[in-house]
Amino acid sequence: MHFQTKNVHFQEKVSADELSKTKPIYQTSAFAFDDLDDMESYFQGEKSYLYTRNGNPNTDDLGKGVADLEGAPAGVATSSGISSILAGVLSVAKSGDHVIATEDLYGGTYQLMANELPNFGIDVSFVNFADEHAVREAIKDETVLLYSESITNPLLRVEDLARVRKIAQEFGLKTMIDNTFATPYLIRPFDEGIDLVVHSATKYIGGHSDISAGVLVGLETLLKKARMKVTNLGSNLGPFDGWLGCRGLKTLSLRMQKQSANAEALADVLRNEAMVTKVYYPSAASTAGNGAIVTIDLGDGYDLHTFFRSLAWVKIVPTLAGVETSVTYPAGTSHRAMPKSTREKLGVTDQMVRISVGIEDERDVIDTFLKALQAAKIS
Ligand SMILES: *Cc1c(COP(=O)(O)O)cnc(C)c1O
After folding, report:
1. Å from CA of 183 to ligand 1 middle
2. Helix/strand/coil for 120
3. Does residue 89 contact residue 218 with C-beta atoms inside 8 Å?
């Protein structure tokens, strides 16, 4: 099956006595058995469900749906992107191990790795993954995992996945990539030899800004361990959120196609606004498009507050990826906790705005941003 077909045909068939066209919501904490033999059959692997913290048809559907699109054999859905990242890291690293992560990580991932993983006895080094030499230099005897993002936030650096895989193979390390910004519609890291791929399904997988969820996919051996972590840490996703995630996922192809095209058009127009200091938008992220996030640096020519106040129907929200266009202010939200010097070293300035482009008519999107720039111009 091709991508767009798999995108709508990932759910398991409902049982013969069910006539529901869509999958019912298994809004249950546990599953009932006829007798002890019936219950034993779960432990013999003949039945799939026992207790929702161990697994539930709606959350399993979401894990399977994303795994299918990523070309991976197994997946698990969890309560958030962050809990999927934790489950993935813990399926590879244990106390005493060392992880190397890119320094331009999503803020929440940085917090997890810098403040929580050391409590599990896992040491993390943050290095510039654009510099191959720096990654190699950071490898120690204890290193087990290389961690990066396929498209970074908010500067939209496209990771060289082949290079990450090559270094890992040379040193016998595992690899894990956060594919949230790209989605499998644009980039499929597992196909490029990456071991674990993680998503904040809160973003494009769900697509409607109505759930908090994560999905981890990869090899069955690692996913078996990751599922155990999710069960033991209690970071399972609720059935209704799993169901909503599946509903959102079915339109991923259409949304990404439209949102990417709108973003490309907006980036082109903004590049021609001579007073905008810089427009960040990838040029060759994939053959299917370059994603739906455009980051701009307003520089000295515009008043930041007036710009944000002049955006009409565009919402200011600390998230991305919904069907509605929205903006965020990285220096004040995702990168707020970072010292200004570190932030500026990464290139995240005080005048930077991250735009998450939605599915609206491209002309309205462009018009709204041009009007806001006009209003905010410092004469
Ligand atoms: C939002 C996000 C996360 C964290 O996901 P949550 O669902 O908020 O836990 C991780 N990585 C990236 C790239 C994100 O955008």
Report:
1. 12
2. helix
3. no
User: What are the structure tokens assigned to 362, written together?
Assistant: 């491209």
CATH class belonging to 3-249: alpha beta
Ligand 1: residue of 102, 106, 147, 354 to mutate (most ligand atoms within 8 A of CB) is 106
Say whether pLDDT at 18 is over 80: no
**Cα 80 to middle of ligand 1, angstroms:** 8
- Which pLDDT score, from 0 to 100, does residue 353 have? 97
Distance 83 CA to ligand 1 centre (A): 10
- Residues 173-209: tens digit of each pLDDT: 999 999 999 999 999 999 999 999 999 999 999 999 9
* Distance in Å, CA 349 to ligand 1 centroid: 21
The dihedral through the CA atoms of 135, 294, 187, 124 has a sign that is: positive
Matching CATH topology for 3-249 and 252-376? no
For ligand 1, whether the C-beta of 179 sits within 6 Å is no
Report the separation in Å between the CA atom of 82 and the middle of ligand 1, taken as the mean of its atom positions.
6
Cα 66 to averaged position of ligand 1 atoms, centre (Å): 16
Number of Cβ within 10 Å of residue 17's Cβ equals 5
pLDDT digits (tens, 9 = 90+) for 117-150: 999 999 999 999 999 999 999 999 999 999 999 9
* Count of C-beta atoms within a 10 Å radius of residue 141: 5
Cα(29)–Cα(12) distance, integer angstroms: 20
The minimum-distance atom of ligand 1 relative to the CA of 85 is: 10
Query: Which residue has the least CA distance to atom 1 on ligand 1?
Result: 200
* Domain boundaries along the sequence of the chain: 3-249, 252-376
The pLDDT tens digits of the residues spanning 35-84 come to 999 999 999 999 999 999 999 999 999 999 999 999 999 999 999 999 99
How far is the C-alpha of 93 from the C-alpha of 143, rounded, in Å?
Answer: 9
- Indicate if ligand 1 lies below 6 Å from the C-beta of 241: no
Pocket probe for ligand 1: among 66, 82, 159, 204, the residue whose CB has the most ligand atoms within 8 Å is: 82
Q: Which amino acid is at 89?
A: V
pLDDT tens digits along 71-108: 999 999 999 999 999 999 999 999 999 999 999 899 89
Q: Rounded to two decimals, what is the model's pTM?
A: 0.94
CATH architecture under which domain 252-376 falls: Alpha-Beta Complex (3.90)
